[in-house]
Amino acid sequence: MALLDFAQTLYDSEFGTGLRESVLVFPIIEGLHLIGLAFSVGLIFFVDFRLLGWFLPKVPVHSILQPLRPWLFGGFALTLVTGVVLFIATAVKVIVLPVFFYKLGFIALAGVNAAWFEYRWGRRIGDWSEHTILPSGVRRAGWASLALWSLAVVTGRLIPYLSYQ
């Protein structure tokens, strides 16, 4: 119940009410959220496709990953900030939806997968990144990333549809 009370406090706050009732601000925040997703998840898919050998297989992974990292992190930061703001505006509606917690779980698991990839493989990227067929652990991380981020996006897109039932 404390979580629902917290959500109600956020929802009833001046900020939450103002955002929710704004004709322009809410759609702008939502648009920025989608732009952040395009940069973060969209670019992650390119990296994952390379890890699986489906995209630019002759180009070393580090040649793709290194220039994209600032854009990936910038997109993720934008998505995170706008996601928190959108949550404040809709907290009472989304906190009761199981799909919202699935989304958060998929994001957390995708983060664990990314951290594992960085810890296990990212430190030694020069040792394997130029191979056409990458180590199986790298490919598994790519598959996991594709699956988890896809599930996060799908569950996120379900939220507005399920919250107005």
Q: What structural class is derived from the secondary structure elements?
A: mainly alpha
Question: Roughly what percent helix?
Answer: over 70%
- The multimeric state of the shown protein is single chain
- Over all CA atoms, what is the radius of gyration? 18 Å
Low-confidence stretches: none
Secondary structure tally: strands: 0
Write a structural description:
With 165 residues, the protein is mainly α. It has one domain (1-164). Helices cover 81% and strands 0% of the residues. It contains 7 helices and no strands. The radius of gyration is 18 Å and the shape is elongated. The two termini are 22 Å apart. The model has no long low-confidence stretch (mean pLDDT 92). Residues 30-160 form the DUF6644 domain. This is DUF6644 domain-containing protein. InterPro entries: DUF6644. Keywords: Membrane, Transmembrane, Transmembrane helix. Pfam families: DUF6644 (PF20349).
Topology (elements, then pairings):
Layout: H1 2-12, H2 14-21, H3 25-51, H4 61-94, H5 98-120, H6 125-128, H7 136-162
Helix pairs in contact: 1-4, 2-4, 3-4, 3-7, 5-7
At a glance:
Keywords: Membrane, Transmembrane, Transmembrane helix. This protein is mostly helical and 165 residues long. Helices cover 81% and strands 0% of the residues.
Defining traits:
single chain, 165 residues, mainly alpha, 0% strand, elongated
